[in-house]
Design brief:
mainly alpha; about 65% helix
Length: about 130
């Protein structure tokens, strides 16, 4: 589906005010908008988030791209969930890369992996 088709689907799912606000917020982050240029991902995100505005977040989209199992049936991320070993390995590799190069993540999944490092820190330390 084209970006225009994606926007049309959002407009069909939400009231005009909400769809406008949602589209504007998704377009704020170039990594999010770049990810949403993928037609298959657009449909997967629509199917996952449905008409629940609290599911239309960069975090849910990144989790969906990394591993849909990271999201609960309610489309939320469970902080108490033990992360799969392959995801843990990827997130710490991404963290090391950012620390050693100083470059920001270049894709939404990589940004999501960095967010998971912060989440892991919170789970271990009990604070940010």
């Amino acid at each position: 589906m084209s970006v225009d088709g994606f926007i049309s689907k959002l407009q069909a799912l939400f009231e005009p005010y909400d769809s406008k606000k949602l589209i504007r917020s998704l377009r704020q982050d170039p990594l999010v908008w770049q990810a949403l240029s993928n037609a298959d991902l657009q449909q997967r995100f629509i199917d996952c988030a449905q008409a629940q505005t609290d599911r239309w977040t960069p975090g849910c989209l990144a989790a969906l791209m990394l591993d849909a199992e990271l999201l609960t049936l309610q489309g939320q991320f469970d902080m108490s969930q033990v992360l799969p070993a392959d995801i843990s390995k990827q997130m710490y590799q991404s963290y090391e890369t950012v620390c050693s190069t100083g470059l920001p993540p270049d894709t939404l999944p990589r940004a999501g992996l960095l967010a998971l490092v912060l989440r892991d820190h919170y789970v271990i330390k009990g604070s940010w």
